[in-house]
Design brief:
It comes from Rossellomorea vietnamensis. The protein is α/β, with parallel strands linked by helices and 263 residues long. The chain contains eight helices and seven strands, in the order βαβαβαβαβαβαααβ. Helix 1 packs parallel to helix 2 and helix 6 crosses helix 7. It is globular and about 55 Å long. The two termini are 30 Å apart.
Length: 263
């Protein structure tokens, strides 16, 4: 299937590794012109070179961006417009907030998680909308968490602000439909990333288990019987931002191998 992504101008945030990197790689395979970003310039350069080597697509660019800094976000979009001649697609991604329960966090922790995991998305969307309107349409995907469907114990910050993304996406899908801009939220379940490995380590220590024992237990709760791979998650996003998707907007999806039991 031709996804119609060749030469599309794409921003993928927090994309030097993990789900962001996997998404940028899949879009590059389809011939999109991609701008990746993170706070670490060395990692970005390494990732950009790797994507170019793996795909043969040389139209891969990078810029540093702290997603809690509004000036960085503004510069990110300006860089995309300069290097890619506009913005057709935005894939919003950030690192997850710290793990812990309610009593662990003070006001500063809540404020930081809000700025990192919700306000940053609001800011990037605000910056790209004028460019998408000028292009007579666009696609936005907000990467969230399976906690948008079912709360995860010990991740109260994620449970709170990732759910806010769903409300944001649903509201904007209605406002932006007349401009041919489709926006959806996609949450990963147990995808084999550094973030999941970190959470597994924390949970294993709490339960006095080895990480292998914890992972085996987690896999038994997944009907497919294993953790997902980043490229499996990225392929779902590739469809959502492509010309193959012409009618799906305002939805909250999880890519979890059937793990979440909520309807």
């Amino acid at each position: 299937m031709d996804f119609g992504l060749k030469d599309k101008a794409v921003i993928v945030t927090a994309s030097s590794k993990g789900l962001g990197k996997a998404t940028a790689l899949e879009l590059a395979k389809e011939g999109a012109r991609v701008l990746i970003s993170s706070r670490n310039e060395e990692e970005l350069q390494k990732t950009a070179n790797e994507i170019m080597d793996l795909t043969g697509n040389q139209d891969i660019h990078y810029t540093t961006c702290d997603m809690t800094n509004p000036e960085d976000i503004r510069s990110l979009v300006e860089t995309a417009v300069s290097k890619l001649d506009g913005v057709d697609i935005l894939v919003n991604n950030t690192g997850g907030p710290p793990a812990g329960g309610f009593q662990k966090f003070e006001d500063d922790d809540w404020q930081y998680a809000f700025e990192l995991n919700l306000l940053s998305y609001i800011r990037t969307i605000r910056e790209v909308i004028p460019h998408m309107k000028r292009n007579n349409g666009g696609r936005i995907v907000n990467i969230a968490s399976s906690s948008t469907k079912q709360a995860i114990d010990g991740l109260i910050l994620s449970n709170t602000f990732r759910t806010g993304m769903v409300g944001l996406s649903k509201s904007l899908s209605r406002e932006l439909a007349q401009d041919h801009i489709l926006i959806n939220t996609v949450g990963p379940g147990r995808i084999a990333t550094d973030r999941v490995a970190e959470l597994d380590q924390l949970n294993a220590e709490k339960r006095n288990m080895t990480v292998d024992e914890l992972r085996s237990m987690s896999e038994k709760a997944i009907p497919i019987g294993r953790y997902g791979e980043p490229d499996e998650f990225a392929k779902v996003i590739t469809f959502l931002v492509s010309d193959a998707n012409t009618y799906l907007t305002g939805q909250s999806l999880v890519v979890d191998g059937g793990m979440v039991t909520a309807l």
